[in-house]
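pinging the channel bc i need a second pair of eyes. not urgent but kinda urgent?? the chain im working w is below, pasted from the shared doc
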Amino acid sequence: MLHLDVDGLRNTQVGKLLMQRLTTGDDNHKMNALAAWLGCDPRKDLAGVTLYGPPGVSDDGVVILGGKFNQQQMETYVKADAAYQGEAYKGTTIHSWIDKKKNKRMWGAFMNGGSQIVISGVDSALKTALDTISGQAGSSLATQNSCNLALGTANGAVLVAAADMSKIKGTKPNAQTLKQAKAASASIGEQGNDMVATISIEADSAVSAQQMTDMARGILAMIQLDDKTDAKTKEALRATTIDAQGTSLKVAIHMPAQTLADAMQKKWQEEDQKKAADTTQSK
């Protein structure tokens, strides 16, 4: 599960800087074109994004968008697809079309007076989400939690995520640490003048949790001692806490929001300078 509280992000120092970036230059032109196509402006009208699905089965995933949408314009657009199909389902209309980039059929519907858009690549997964949001049927805990997040219960964090590690590990034979994890979650939010990222891991045993803790502390020490690590990063790492209790490991990373904002501005400046240089050379 992953949830981005876009409304909350806009109120953070980093979010304000990002929105400023999206209202200037080429980014502004692209966003204006997207707003004209959608009939709503994501910079102002998108409230939140939630994604969830069973581990390792991408087609069963569900996307829930919350905000202010131009339902009529969006439905007119999707109905123009030659492969469009419509289905009445428990008081709402399910729209179906062909995603030309993926060359596969998609299903979507508007909920709660058009303030939510629910999309999936599997008809049954979409209907389960619609039933959960409308309260017409029970569902798995994962589906309930995901839909609750989409309805705005992110508990103050602007980004939250969770994964069942027991179902997705095994990607690399040498990833022994991941094999010891049963579940993981993460959140990012602004607290005072800091951006705080919290990572929690549930290990398969207290011994595994302690091993992960020792490894995390070792990596942290190596980064702090590395001459290539800048002073601001070292300062942020000094405020990082790593704790293990029983089978649980929790890492909290604190970084001044201004430090992150400065890094973003520097990266954008470098990108703009490279783009300007490439344009000059092409002429």
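so The chain is about 45% helix and 30% strand. and The mean pLDDT is 85. — does that match what u expected or am i reading it wrong
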